[in-house]
Amino acid sequence: MNTTIQSLRQHELVILRRLRNGPLTEFELASEIAEHSGFTPEETADSVAGWLETLRDEGLVWAGALQNADGQHLMAAALTRQGRELVN
Fold first, then answer.
1. Is 9 helix (H, G, I), strand (E, B) or coil?
2. Partners of 24 in the beta sheet?
3. Whose CA is closest to 19, among 60, 73, 64, 65?
4. How much is the pLDDT for 2?
5. What's the order of all strands across the beta sheet hosting 61-67?
6. Strand stretches in 43-82, DSSP E
7. Share in percent of the chain as helix, strand, coil (round to 5)
8. Could you give the CA distance from residue 72 to residue 66 in angstroms, rounded to a whole number?
9. Cα gap 85→25, rounded to integer Å
10. How far apart are CA 4 and CA 74, in angstroms?
11. What is the pTM of this model?
């Protein structure tokens, strides 16, 4: 897929730009998206995992679930080389 900055939606652009400085969790990203887009904190909390999966499928981020010993899950993401080239 040939993704350009202009083809990204606002929340996708926020995600990619925030990941420039290193990996973040879904909670950190949800806070950033709510602050810098038209989405509410509740909307971002409900949607961020799906948005990360979409960006992962496009090859722009590495995203996966981390699990602790109690079985709790948390999504985390980092830029791929393609994602870094796009936002740098």
1. coil
2. 77
3. 60
4. 65
5. 24-25, 73-79, 61-67
6. 61-67, 73-79
7. 55, 20, 25
8. 8
9. 21
10. 28
11. 0.89
Angle, vertex CA 56, rays to CA 6 and CA 36, nearest 5: 50
Q: In whole angstroms, give the CA distance from residue 35 to residue 39.
A: 8
Which position has the token pair 């995992």? 49
CA angle, corner 66, sides to 60 and 68, nearest 5? 170
8-28: pLDDT as tens digits:
999 999 999 999 999 999 999
The DSSP H or E segment spanning 22 is: none
Residues 62, 80 contacting (CB under 8 angstroms)? yes
